Amino acid sequence: MLIALCSHAEAQQPAKMPRIGVMVTAERGLEELRQGLRERGYVEGKNIELIHRYIQGNTDRMPSLVAELLERKVDLLILSSPTAIRAAKNATRTIPIVMITNQDPVAIGLVESLARPGGNLTGVVSLTRDLSGKRLEIFKEAVPKTSRVGVIWASPTNLGAANAFQNYEAAASAFKLKLVSLQAQRPKPDWDGLFRAADKARVNALISVTNAVLNQHIKKIADFAIQKRIPLMVEGSNFVEEGAMISYAANDADRFHRAALYVDKILKGAKPADLPVEQAMKFELVINLKTAKQIGLTIPPNVLARADKVIR
To answer: Degrees (nearest 5) of the Cα angle 274, 128, 208?
Structure first.
C-alpha cells in the first residue's frame, strides 16, 4: 500500500517548468519572443519561466549579467549581443544557448560553421554588414541629392567582426557617394565632438550603424539629424520609430519567432550542435514620413511604394 501511495504521489508531481534566461536590447524584442513562444504553446508562468535582463549599452556589464542568469539555474539562454553570447559560451559548455545576432558567428569564432555549429550554441543571424551596399542603394534612391554621407560607427569588440565603415566604403563608389567616418568612442561616445565633426565635414546624410553602444543613443542621433535637416538611415526598423527617416534590415519579429522555434526544439530534446544556424530571410524597408516632412524631403513615389511600413 505504501509503495502504491508513493507511486501515486510521484505521478501527481508537476513536471519541472523550464527556466529560460533572456538578455535582449529592448522590451520589443522580449515581447516578440513571448509571442513566438505562445504560438508554440508556451505560456509564461504556466509552463515556462522567463528570467530576463536588459542590455543597457554598457558592454562591460554583459558578462556579469550572463553570470546572474546562470546563477538562477536556467535551462537555456537566449542572447542578442555578441559580447553576451561569447561570455555565455566561455562560462558554460552544457547549457544550450540560442543567439539572435547581427554579426557573423563563424567570423568571430562563436560556432564552427552555420550548417554544423557544434557545441551548445545555435540560433538566428542577420548578417547586417552584407546589406551595407543595398542600404546605400536605397538611400540614394530615396534621397537622390545625397553626396556626402557620415557613417556613425564604433569599432567592433569581437576579434574577426567586420568593420562597419569599411563595408559601407567598399560599396559607396558604385553610387557616387563620398563617405565620412564618424567613429564613436566606447563605452561613452563624445557626442558633442562627433556632431561637430559631422558639421565640419558638411555631410548631407547620416547612417548610424547598429551596436550595443549606439543603439542606446538613436534618439540623440535622430534629433541631431532633424535639427540639421538631413536624412538618417539606420539598421533596424525600431529605430525609425525613434525619429530616424529610413531603415532596411531584417524583420525583427521574424527573427525572434524563429528563436522561439529553436527553444521549442531544444526543450523537446534536440541538441544545439545538431541545429543549423539560420540566416534571416525576411527583410523590411521602413520609412518615417513624419521625419521626412520635418526635414523638408519628399520621398519618391517608387521608393514609398516598396516600403513594408510607413510611419505617418
So the answer is: 150
For residue 234 the three cell numbers come to 539606420
Backbone angles phi, psi at 140, to 5 degrees: -65, -35
CATH for the stretch 16-125+251-281:
3.40.50.2300
Q: Hey, what CATH topology would domain 129-250+284-311 get?
A: Rossmann fold (3.40.50)
Domains 16-125+251-281 and 129-250+284-311 share a fold: yes
Distance CA 270, CA 257 (A): 18
Burial group, residue 6, by CB count within 10 angstroms (0-12, 13-18, 19+): exposed
pTM over 0.70: yes
The string of pLDDT tens digits covering residues 45-104 is: 999 999 998 776 566 788 999 999 999 999 999 998 888 999 999 999 999 999 998 888
Long-range contacts of 224-229 (CB under 8 A, 24+ apart): 224/195, 224/198, 225/295, 226/291, 226/294, 226/295, 228/198, 228/199, 229/294, 229/295, 229/296
For residues 190 and 253, what is the distance between their CA atoms, to the nearest angstrom? 33
Spans of all domains in the chain: 16-125+251-281, 129-250+284-311
